[in-house]
Amino acid sequence: MPKESASVKAIKLARTVLESIQGGDLGLLKFSIESLTPTNGSDVEESKKWKIICSYFETLASSKPSKFEINVDLNINSVSIKMLDK
What we know:
This protein is about 20% helix and about 40% strand. A hairpin with a 4-residue loop joins strand 3 and strand 4. Strands 1-2-3-4 form a four-stranded antiparallel β-sheet. The chain has one helix spanning about 5-20, and strands at about 30-40, 50-55, 65-75, 80-85. It is α+β, with helices and mostly antiparallel strands and about 90 residues long.
């Protein structure tokens, strides 16, 4: 089985944190990654820090998705979340 890339790990960690905050049985409705940008790394080593812009509907009654900026540091498994708009 191929090794999972750091970008996939960052997305999974961000999504797990958002799901734990959101709660409920619905998960993240129409979760969408709008951008995924490495914020460190080099030509030889894959980035361990990522900036993710994503959106999802917070409830079934939401008329539009909420948008978030998430910074992930895989070195220490930390996630910071900032809501961009609702």
